[in-house]
Design goal:
Helix content is 57%, strand content 0%. The longest helix is centred in the first third of the chain and has 65 residues, at 18-82. The protein is rod-shaped. The protein is mostly helical and 160 residues long. 4% of the residues are buried.
């Protein structure tokens, strides 16, 4: 008995032509190239999206830095205007949070609003607005006439 056993997974040499093998290889490589092109397009799109995300993060960081600098400059301008009101900046910032109400419509420091806020704080706390003498309220209204050293040396002890 002659056994002619063929592997069912391998093409039968009698039925397979050499052109079929070449066509199968071309089809297989074409499918691989399509997958590679799709991967390339996806990776290109991903890298482009990553580039835009990086640019967005950089732009947001710049925006935050500029906003911080703007707020610091505005606070310095407010403190400059406070020097005319006689209220110390530390007292002002302890009682007035942030720049709310101190900026005009254009985002600039409004000197009138700063002055008004400082006066409101002074009025609420009862802080005196003018210079105060350290002896005010302590000296008698009527001073007695006393002899000066000159009067004492010349023999006049009482002053008239």
């Amino acid at each position: 008995m002659s056994e002619n056993t063929t592997n069912p997974t391998e093409p039968d040499d009698a039925t397979a032509s050499p052109g079929d093998a070449a066509t199968g290889a071309k089809a297989h490589s074409a499918a691989d190239s399509k997958e590679t092109e799709g991967d390339t397009e996806r990776s290109s799109a991903n890298s482009e999206a990553a580039k835009y995300r990086r640019r967005l993060r950089d732009t947001e960081a710049e925006r935050d830095t500029m906003a911080t600098q703007r707020d610091q400059l505005a606070r310095q301008l407010v403190e400059t205007h406070l020097s005319t009101t006689g209220l110390k900046p530390a007292a002002f910032w302890a009682l007035h949070e942030g720049l709310d109400g101190l900026l005009d419509d254009n985002g600039l420091v409004d000197p009138a609003a700063v002055t008004q806020a400082a006066h409101a704080i002074r009025d609420n706390l009862g802080i005196a607005t003018g210079p105060v003498s350290h002896t005010e309220g302590m000296s008698p209204q009527h001073r007695e006439a006393r002899a000066s050293w000159r009067d004492v040396m010349q023999g006049r002890e009482e002053r008239v």
